[in-house]
Amino acid sequence: MKFFIDTANLAQIKEAHDLGILDGVTTNPSLMAKEGIRGEEAINQHYKTICELVDGDISAEVLTTDFNTIVEEGKKLAAIHPNIVVKVPMIKEGVRAIKWFTDNGIRTNCTLIFSAGQAILAAKAGAAFVSPFIGRIDDSGWDGMILIEQIANIFEVQGYKTEILAASIRSPNHIIRAAELGAHVITSPLESILALLKHPLTDIGLAKFLEDSKKMSLVVEDIKQ
Ligand code: E4P
């Protein structure tokens, strides 16, 4: 399973990248606005900087909702860097645009997926990724993981090449469950990725090993020399 980070914050992207496990980055208009990125030039420059930091798939979202402008916007985004994946919302015009991008060699990530039917349409249009929003589904009183499982089953039965990108991750457990259920990718805030590192027994075990290592100071000295 690939790991993407879900942020436009350069320091967090760098921290995840330095861990050596990062395969890509997803952004959205809310995450870009949070970083104070405004205007076409600044937006394009920000995506370029992210592409230079991380050699992987970088999702850049269109800000328009009709076919012609989505296509124009997506072409410009795709021209920024070969690793850009154009992120398109799950709407009728978006599905048409995904098909156009597919036919013209531009990879897409279909965002705001909340049902298996939406995932099927995006896959049929040739999206490289579908992004079911797990956390937001949980917030609405359903279980986002049931959707991941359902889409994974359908894509396997149908042989769709589209990758399932579990999005709107809120906890380390979301990442573990997504891996169990067959998501190809997760996109997560840095906090949940780092939380995977943690276990109290690891901390207790390490403290004991470090304490006992003092009893073998001769060996430690040997290693120093
Ligand atoms: C997906 O690509 C979105 O950027 C993201 O995961 C949305 O998550 P949220 O529900 O935390 O805003």
Topology:
Blueprint lengths: L1 E5 L3 H9 L5 E3 L2 H6 L5 H14 L3 E5 L5 H14 L3 E6 L2 H12 L4 E6 L2 H9 L4 E4 L1 H6 L4 H15 L4 E4 L5 H10 L3 E4 L1 H6 L4 H14 L3 H8 L1
Parallel strand pairs: 1-2, 1-8, 2-3, 3-4, 4-5, 5-6, 6-7, 7-8
Verbal overview:
The protein is α/β, with parallel strands linked by helices. It has 12 helices and 8 strands. The chain has helices at 10-18, 29-34, 40-53, 67-80, 92-103, 116-124, 134-139, 144-158, 172-181, 190-195, 200-213, 217-224, and strands at 2-6, 24-26, 57-61, 84-89, 108-113, 129-132, 163-166, 185-188. The chain has an 8-stranded parallel β-barrel with strand order 1-2-3-4-5-6-7-8, surrounded by 7 helices. Strand 1, helix 1 (10-18) and strand 2 (24-26) form a beta-alpha-beta unit. The chain is globular. It starts with a strand and ends with a helix. 37% of the residues are buried. The model has no long low-confidence stretch (mean pLDDT 96). Bound molecules: erythose-4-phosphate (E4P). The site of erythose-4-phosphate has 11 residues, from helix 7.
